[in-house]
Every structure is written in C-alpha cells, then in structure tokens.
TrEMBL record:
<dbReference type="GO" id="GO:0006865">
    <property type="term" value="P:amino acid transport"/>
</dbReference>
<feature type="signal peptide">
    <location>
        <begin position="1"/>
        <end position="24"/>
    </location>
</feature>
<keyword id="KW-0732">Signal</keyword>
<dbReference type="InterPro" id="IPR001638">
    <property type="entry name" value="Solute-binding_3/MltF_N"/>
</dbReference>
<protein>
    <submittedName>
        <fullName>Amino acid ABC transporter substrate-binding protein</fullName>
    </submittedName>
</protein>
<feature type="domain" description="Solute-binding protein family 3/N-terminal">
    <location>
        <begin position="35"/>
        <end position="264"/>
    </location>
</feature>
<keyword id="KW-0813">Transport</keyword>
<comment type="similarity">
    <text>Belongs to the bacterial solute-binding protein 3 family.</text>
</comment>
<dbReference type="InterPro" id="IPR018313">
    <property type="entry name" value="SBP_3_CS"/>
</dbReference>
<dbReference type="InterPro" id="IPR051455">
    <property type="entry name" value="Bact_solute-bind_prot3"/>
</dbReference>
<dbReference type="Pfam" id="PF00497">
    <property type="entry name" value="SBP_bac_3"/>
</dbReference>
Amino acid sequence: MKTNILVSAAFGAVAALVAGSASAGTLDNVKQKGFLQCGSNTGLAGFGQPDAQGNWTGLDVDFCRAIAAAVFNDASKVKFVPLSAKDRFTALQSGEVDVLVRNTTWTISRDTSLGLNFTGVNYYDGQGFMVRKSLKVASALELNGASVCVQQGTTTELNLADYFRANKIQLKSVTFASSDETLKAYEAGRCDAFTTDASGLYAERLRLAQPDEHLVLPEIISKEPLGPAVRHGDDQWFDIVKWVGYAQLTAEELGVDQKNVDAMLKSDNPDIKRLLGTEGKFGEALGLPNDWAYRVIKLVGNYGESFERTVGQGSPLKIKRGLNALWNKGGLQYAPPIR
C-alpha cells in the first residue's frame, strides 16, 4: 500500500537531520547488536506476515533473511518490526530499523525528500482491480458508474481517479482510513470493486470468506516498483543491501540454487566463481567475507526460489512471474555483473 506522496518541508528537513545522524556505520551497528532490524509489513500474505507462533514468511521476509545471511552467516538473526504504511518511513529515518523491506513503491519524492535510498526493485507491481465473478465484468473499462473501495490518502486513490477520468468513465469512489476497513467494506458489498496493488489483491483475496468467487481484472493502471530502502549517508550499507538482491538474481541466472550451491563451489565458470567468492575479493569491498553471496544462496536461495515459494506457483497466491521474470526470460529483473 502506498501512502500519500506529499511531504511537508518541515518534516523533510527534520527527517534529513535524523537520517544523517542515524545512518553512519550501519553495518557495525548491526554486528554489535547481533541481529538485523528489518521494517516489515504488519501482515500481507506472500510478502511479510507472521503466523500465530510469530514465524514470519514472505518475499520481503526472505530478503531480510538474505541480508542477515550475508552479514552473520545466519539467516535467523533478524528482528522483524511490523510497520504501518504511515509509520514506515519515520521508523527508518530514526534508526528504529536498519532497512525497510515492506512492499514500498520507489518514487522520486521518497527518493529525494525523505532521506532514503532505494536499493533496487524486488517486485515490479502495478495497481489493479478485484471484482466479484457474479458481476460478470472482464475488464476495468466495464466499470463505468461502478463504486470502488479504496484507501484514502494514498496514491492508489489518486491513480484510481486519474484512470477513470482518462478513460471518460464515471467513478463512485468509496474511501476508508485503513486497508482492513477497505477490504471489509468490499466483502460486505458496499462497493462493486476493490483496488490496490495487484500483488496486494492476490494476497487480500485469500482473506475473503470465499476467495474463489472473486476475480482480479487484467488491467494494470500504474507503475509500482517495490523495493528495499535504507537511509541516506551510509554508502557501505547501501551497497550491501543492493548487492544482496543482485546476488540472488545473478544466482538464478547462472542456475545456482540452494540444492547445488555446494557443488557449484567447484565450478570453472568465472561468473560462478566470482559470485561464490572462490575468485576475487568482492566481499572485502563490501566489508563482508568473500563468501557473502554463497551464504545468501545456501541459507535463503536465489531470487526465483524465493519468488516461487512466497508468491509464485508454490504459494497460495500463485502469481505468475510476469515482469518479475529474469531479463532473458521476458521480464525486467536484471543484475549488474559481479566483476
């Protein structure tokens, strides 16, 4: 879910000062604590959600564990801090968390006025619509005059109004303060459709009493590149978080996964040797051991493995790779070379 992009000048100034004082030496601070504090969703299936026993799962959760694996050689050394959409940026700016991995859209205002750096895109998303199958609607363009449940004060609400206006169709938006209220209103029949990020639609559909009676429409009406964020002012930590993601993508592209990574240590492929640290000293340049990427793959897996078990075909969401496929398989996921 995306909060309103408007940020007051006063808030931005304070955020920059706080971020500057809190961000230096993050790697050392994490090591001294003995664990990574990761800003997470309060509960979104497939991305970040604890079960009744407090065990966290999801694509974003896996990424947090991958960072811990690189730093500690132990993917369990993570403290997940549930954050609302409203509180997530303040928590990162203040140093309450070391990294924010919480289905957060990368925008220019967030990149420039909040004292944050986005390290990449771990999920290419876009806003969509969900309707009841009984409505017999196959396209969002057929929603002329329909009522749409949407969370207020978000870019989702702005995108919705823009889409209907651009297509010259009538809109009856029904707004609610929280995502829970919005979903409950849709399920109660107060709206014909429900809109949020498409990934969120698949996750929220699982919470409905009869998920199979609801359909996610094909239209994607916005660009929502979701990714981790760190504070301005600590280039080393920015590099570490960024390259953990690139290592997972590179591993998938090279066919290195959790099951074969030990065997791949003997590979003669120079790309694999550099990835796993048997050639070169790329870990040292990050302030990590040279087997940092080996740790990530061994303990968490490559990007494709994480995607499939959390949001893909091995998960209840069963989302197709689509834009999140590798660049050489028709998608957008692409990592710079390790060399």
